[in-house]
């Protein structure tokens, strides 16, 4: 997450010559709905609660009062936008396609702090895969978006 104002004041520039610098940027600018505890258990992070409504529908209750570095409040709109942005990618996760949530999933806006994720089929690893789905603010997608502005795609330029 980057704070930005007119004339670039407050802009954070990260320089890392490592071929894995996207990980450094990702882990220092974005957050995910869930994390893994030290024992490997999936625990809420940006989500305050996770609940399976049925075998193919996961409810995420989001934390109230979370803000991005630019002051933008984190809401269900961000979850929906991030999922919509990543849906068309062939391989959203460079470390491996096994981290990808099944294609055809839909994010339903329930209220400002709650979403339902509808999966087209049962995915027993969905909670673990959510660990690798990071949420960015609206400015990120408008200005950078993992390379969309520069390359027209987010894939293949890492």
Write up this protein.
This protein has 158 residues and is α+β, with helices and mostly antiparallel strands. The protein has one domain (6-151): Dipeptide-binding Protein, domain 1. The chain has helices spanning 21-29, 76-86, 126-130, 138-143, 148-151; strands at residues 31-32, 34-36, 42-44, 47-54, 57-62, 106-111, 114-118, 134-135. The radius of gyration is 16 Å and the shape is globular. The two termini are 19 Å apart. Residues 1-6 have low confidence and may be disordered.
Helix content: 10-25%
State the CATH topology: Dipeptide-binding Protein, domain 1
- Give the neighbour order of strands across the main sheet: 4-5-7-6
DSSP summary: helix tally: 5
Anisotropy-based shape: globular
Element-by-element helix/strand order: HEEEEEHEEHEHH
Most strands sheet = 4 strands, antiparallel
CATH superfamily, called what? Dipeptide-binding Protein, Domain 1
Q: What is the strand tally?
A: 8
- How much of the polypeptide forms β-strand, as a percent range? 15-25%
Round the Cα radius of gyration to an integer and report it: 16 Å
**Cα end-to-end separation:** 19 Å
CATH class bucket: Alpha Beta
Domain Solute-binding protein family: 41-135
Organism: Bacillus suaedaesalsae
Protein name: ABC transporter substrate-binding protein
InterPro entries: SBP_5_dom
């Amino acid at each position: 997450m980057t704070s930005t104002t007119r004339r670039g004041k407050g802009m954070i520039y990260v320089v890392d010559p490592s071929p894995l610098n996207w990980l450094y940027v990702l882990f220092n600018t974005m957050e995910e709905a869930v994390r893994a505890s030290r024992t490997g258990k999936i625990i809420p992070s940006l989500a305050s609660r996770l609940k399976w409504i049925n075998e193919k529908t996961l409810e995420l209750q989001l934390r109230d009062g979370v803000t991005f570095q630019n002051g933008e409040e984190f809401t269900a709109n961000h979850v929906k936008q991030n999922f919509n942005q990543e849906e068309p990618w062939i391989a959203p996760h460079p470390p491996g396609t096994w981290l990808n949530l099944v294609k055809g999933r839909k994010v339903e806006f329930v209220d400002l702090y709650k979403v339902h994720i509808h999966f087209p089929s049962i995915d027993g690893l969905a909670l673990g895969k959510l660990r690798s789905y990071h949420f960015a603010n609206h400015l990120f997608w408008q200005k950078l978006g993992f390379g969309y502005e520069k390359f027209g795609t987010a894939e293949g330029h890492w």
